[in-house]
């Protein structure tokens, strides 16, 4: 159902929906065991031996902030719903799907943009300040590591807060500016969804879509997208090469909150093996890289990482 409202109260209503969505979030952390004292000691020893630590993080570090992931057992998007992320070719070639994507993302962004860093994000920022971190690569597009203060960071899959035109490459547009452009084009359109999905998405029906008008590039009137890597798209090869170079200069690898199921992240585990780097993994449940790890701890990142004492 589309709820139509007067222009003068649209922003207030929009904000109230964001608050409602945020407060109704489920617990998106899958079942886990608390870390033992032995787990803590072993991880602390691993970290203490590293002078040039390379960190690889995934969606599992942000579920504790209220952002669902895709693959977690029982609570991930794939387990809870039949919804699937839009493929890049659909976005590029199907105007109806392009329109649907932006309607969903427009509704989801006020909630997604207000999520805040949790103990894990802040811990990594603290480690960086103590010069423990050599480089950090994240698969997340939620900006929470940046909000926490991390700077030695590569966003492997981009960032939802940035916007790019796929036709002319225009990038001088923030996500908040795009929200205003969409609002100006759709001053009385609103749709309500109780479920927030990963990557600032919500679920809407065709009926809810109504007369929604999708955004266009302010420079060339082309198609715009969040500056993220869609499913079915490729990570920038220059970025991959840079990250591998940083990895080659590191002396150990810590994986936190990632199942490493996608090749874009797993490739760095394969590279770390080639460089003969020790690998530690903290993640609830199995990962694709377990076989390569010298240390694997299956627990919630926020329960163990803040307990690790850092010796620079």
Give a description of the structure.
With about 300 residues, this protein is of the alpha/beta class. It has one domain (about 5-30, about 35-305): Rossmann fold, CATH 3.40.50.1220. The chain contains 12 helices and 10 strands. It has helices at about 10-25, 35-50, 75-80, 90-95, 95-110, 120-130, 145-150, 175-185, 205-210, 235-250, 265-275, 300-305; strands at about 55, 135-140, 155, 160-165, 195, 200, 225-230, 250-255, 280, 295. Strands 3-2-1-8-9-10 form a 6-stranded parallel sheet, with helices on both faces. Helix 1 (about 10-25) crosses helix 5 (about 95-110).
Short description:
Residues 33-312 form the Deacetylase sirtuin-type domain. Helix content is 36%, strand content 14%.
For the biggest sheet, the summary is: 6 strands, parallel
The helix content, as a percent range, equals 25-40%
Ranges where pLDDT stays below 50 over 5 or more residues in a row are 1-26
N-to-C SSE string, H for helix and E for strand: HHEHHHHEHEEHEEHEHEHEEH
CATH topology: Rossmann fold
Q: Name the overall outline.
A: elongated
Which secondary-structure class do the elements indicate?
A: alpha/beta
How much β-strand is present in the residues?
5-15%
Number of structural units classed as domains:
1
Mean pLDDT rating: 87
Domain Deacetylase sirtuin-type: 33-312
Active site: 157
Binding site for Zn(2+): 165, 168, 217, 220
Keywords: Metal-binding, NAD, Transferase, Zinc
């Amino acid at each position: 159902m589309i709820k139509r409202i007067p222009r003068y109260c649209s922003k207030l209503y929009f904000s109230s929906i964001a608050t409602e969505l945020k407060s109704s979030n489920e617990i998106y952390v899958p079942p886990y065991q608390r870390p033992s004292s032995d787990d803590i000691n072993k991880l602390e020893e691993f970290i203490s031996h590293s002078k040039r630590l390379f960190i690889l993080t995934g969606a599992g570090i942000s579920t504790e902030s209220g952002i669902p992931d895709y693959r977690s057992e029982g609570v991930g998007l794939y387990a809870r719903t039949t919804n699937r992320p839009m493929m890049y070719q659909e976005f590029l070639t199907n105007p109806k799907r392009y329109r649907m994507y932006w309607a969903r993302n427009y509704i989801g962004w006020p909630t997604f943009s207000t999520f805040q860093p949790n103990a894990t994000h802040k811990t990594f920022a603290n480690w960086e300040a103590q010069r423990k971190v050599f480089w950090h690569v994240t698969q997340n597009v939620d900006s929470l590591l940046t909000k926490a203060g991390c700077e030695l960071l590569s966003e492997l899959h981009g960032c939802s807060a940035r916007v790019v035109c796929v036709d002319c490459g225009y990038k001088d547009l923030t996500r908040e500016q795009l929200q205003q452009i969409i609002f100006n084009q759709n001053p009385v359109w609103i749709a309500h969804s109780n479920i927030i999905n990963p990557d600032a998405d919500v679920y809407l029906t065709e009926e809810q879509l109504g007369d929604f008008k999708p955004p266009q590039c302010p420079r060339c009137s082309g198609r715009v997208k969040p500056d993220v890597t869609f499913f079915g798209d490729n990570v920038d090869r220059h970025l991959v090469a840079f990250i591998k170079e940083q990895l080659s200069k590191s002396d150990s690898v810590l994986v936190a909150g990632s199942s490493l199921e996608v090749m874009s992240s797993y490739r760095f585990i394969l590279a770390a093996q080639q460089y003969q780097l020790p690998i530690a993994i903290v993640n609830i449940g199995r990962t694709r890289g377990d076989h390569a790890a010298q240390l694997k701890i299956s627990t919630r990142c926020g329960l163990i990482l803040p307990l690790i004492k850092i010796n620079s």
